[in-house]
Amino acid sequence: MSTSTETTPVGAARTVGVPTLAAIVVGSMVGAGVFSLPGRFAAETGVWGALVAWTVAGTGMLMVALVFQNLAVRRPELNAGVYSYAKAGFGEYLGFFSAFGYWASACAGNVTYWVLIMSTLGAVVPALGEGDTVIAVVLSSVGLWVFYALVRRGVREAAAVNRVVTVAKLLPILTFVLLTAFVFDPAVFAENLSGGAGAPPLWEQVRATMLTTVFVFLGVEGASVYSRHARRREDVGRATLLGFLSVLAVFASVTVVAYGILPRAQLAALDEPSMAGVFEAAVGPWGAVLVAVGLVVSVGGAYLAWTLMAAEVMYVAAKDRDMPRFLARERKDVPVGALALTSVVVQVLLVVTLASEDAFGLALELTSALVLVPFLLAAGYGLRLVLRREGYATGERVWRRDVVVAGLATAYTAFLLWAAGPTYLLLSFVLYAPATVLFVMARREQGRRVFSRPEMVIFAVSVVGAVVGVWALATGAITL
Fold first, then answer.
1. Mean pLDDT throughout 429-448?
2. Would residue 218 be called left, alpha or beta, if left means φ above 0 and alpha means ψ between -120 and 50 degrees?
3. Tens of pLDDT along 190-219?
4. What is the dihedral of CA 118, 120, 125, 127, to 10 degrees?
5. Is residue 27 within 8 Å of residue 309, measured between CB atoms?
6. How far apart are CA 299 and CA 341, in angstroms?
7. How far is CA 436 from CA 129, 185, 342, 417, 443, in A?
8. What's the CA gap between 448 and 101, in Å, rounded?
9. Going by C-beta distance under 8 Å and a sequence separation of 6 or more, which residues neighbour residue 284?
C-alpha cells in the first residue's frame, strides 16, 4: 500500500478556514435539487410522509457527516476524504474505485447543472430548448471553460468566490421560505397531511421520496475532500456539521411550506423548477422570476464546488500513485492535470447530451449510480476504524457513541444502495471495469505487478458486473 496517502503533501497551502469550508459543503449540496423539492415530494407523499422522510434521511446523513468528522480528527493525515478513507480501509484498488467513481459522478453531475441553466433560460430564449440544443451546448461549453480558467487561477481565489456565490444563492431560497410562510394556508396544509384519498401506505410514500434525498444530500463530504487546505484539521469536522445542518433546515423548510400553498395534486403537476410555480402562486409572477435567477446562481455555485472537489480527488489519488502521474501536475496549488481532464470529460458529456432524449435524466442517473459505492466504502472504513479503536486512548468514553454512529452510517449507506436497485449498481460496474485501465497505467509507471490476488478477484467481479450491465442495457432489462 502506498504511503503517500498518509502524509500531507509538501507545500500544500493550509489557508482555508471554517467559513470557506462550510461554504464548500453548502455550495456543493445546494444545487439544482432544492428547486425541484416541492414537486418531487408532492408526487409521492403528503406532509406526514415528507416529515418522516426528512427525519430518516436527515438522521442517516447526519451519521455520515459525524463519521467524516470523526475520521478528520482520528486520521488527520488522510487527504481527499471519500477516496483516502476507502483506500485506508480496503486497499488500493477499492480506493481507486472510490476515487474514479466519485470523480466520474461529479463530472456527470456538472453536466446536469449546465443543462438546467440552459433549460431555465430557455423559457426566455426558446432556441435553448431544454438545454440540449446546439446553441445551448455551445453556451454551456463557453461557461465550462470560463470556470476552468477561474479555478486555474488558484484554489484560494476559487474557494473565496464559492463562498460569495453560496451566500448569493441562499438569499432567493430563504426569501421563498419566509414569504410563503406569510401566505401559508392552514386549510390547504391540513388537506395535504396524509397525501389524499387513495395514497399508498406511509412507508411506501417515504421510500419513494428517499431517492430524492440521496441526490440533494450529495456534497456533505465536501470539506473532507478539500481537507489538505484546511488551517486546522478539526475545522473540517466543524465545517461539515455546520454546512449539513444548515442545508437540512433549508431543504425541509422548502418542502413543508409548499404544502400550505397549493393542493398536493397541483404541486405534483408543476413544471420544473417546481419551486418557481409555488412561489408564483404565493406572491405573483415576480416570484417565478426570482426563483429562476436563484436557480442559475445556485447551479453555478454548485458547479464551481463540484469542479474543485472532482479535481482534488483525482490529484490526491495521483499523488498516491493510484492514478497516472499526469494527473498529479499542479500549478499555484491547483491540480491542473486533474482539472483539465475533468473539464474535458464534462465537455464530452455535454456533446453527448445532443443525442439523448432526456439529457438531464441521463446525467442525473449517472451521478447517482457512481457515488453510492464510494459513500458506502467511506462509512465502512469509519466503522472499521472505531471497532479497531484506532486513534482512541484507553478507556476513552466517546468510543461507544462512535460505534453506534459509524454503524448507523454504514447501515444507512447500504440501505441507499439497496433502495436504488440493481440498475444503479450495474451501471457503476459498466464504468468502473473499463476505467481500471487508469489503475493499470499507474502500476506500470511504478514497475509494479498490476493486481494482487485479492485485487484480481475484485476486478473479475467488476468485469462480470459490467458484462451483465451491458447485456441488460442492450436487451432493455434496464433503461437510462
1. 88
2. beta
3. 888 876 666 677 777 777 777 677 777 776
4. 50
5. no
6. 21
7. 37, 55, 17, 22, 11
8. 23
9. none
pLDDT at site 327: 86
Handedness of CA 63, 69, 70, 76 (dihedral sign): positive
The pLDDT value recorded for residue 7 is 36
Work out the pLDDT band at 237, boundaries 50, 70, 90: low
Q: Residue 58: pLDDT above 90?
A: no
Spatial contact of 241 and 21, defined as CB atoms under 8 Å apart: no
- CB 166 within 8 Å of CB 301: yes
Q: How far apart are the C-alpha atoms of 408 and 371, rounded to whole Å?
A: 19
Say how far residue 234 (Cα) sits from the centre of its chain. 22
pLDDT at 36 over 90: no
Instruction: Quote the cell numbers at residue 84.
Output: 483516502
| Residue 10 pLDDT grade (very low, low, confident, very high; cuts 50, 70, 90) | very low
Task: Please check the confidence at residue 393 and state whether its pLDDT lies above 80.
Answer: no
| Cell numbers placing 90 | 480496503
CA 424 from chain centre, in angstroms, equals 15
Q: Mean of the pLDDT values across residues 423-443?
A: 85
- pLDDT over 90 for what percent of the chain? 6
Residue 157: pLDDT band with limits 50, 70, 90: low
Average pLDDT of the segment spanning 344-362: 77
Three-state SS for the chain is CCCHHHCCCCCCCCCECHHHHHHHHHHHHCCCHHHHHHHHHHCCCCHHHHHHHHHHHHHHHHHHHHHHHHHHHHCCCCCCCHHHHHHHHHCHHHHHHHHHHHHHHHHHHHHHHHHHHHHHHCCCCHHHCCCCCHHHHHHHHHHHHHHHHHHHCCHHHHHHHHHHHHHHHHHHHHHHHHHHHHCCCHHHHHHCCCCCCCCCCHHHHHHHHHHHHHHHHCCCCHHHHCHHHECCHHHHHHHHHHHHHHHHHHHHHHHHHHCCCCCHHHHHHCCCCHHHHHHHHHHCHHHHHHHHHHHHHHHHHHHHHHHHHHHHHHHHHHHCCCCCHHHHCCECCECHHHHHHHHHHHHHHHHHHHHCCCHHHHHHHHHHHHHHHHHHHHHHHHHHHHHCCCCCCCCCCHHHHHHHHHHHHHHHHHHHHHHHCHHHHHHHHHHHHHHHHHHHHHHHHCCCCCCCHHHHHHHHHHHHHHHHHHHHHHHCCCCC
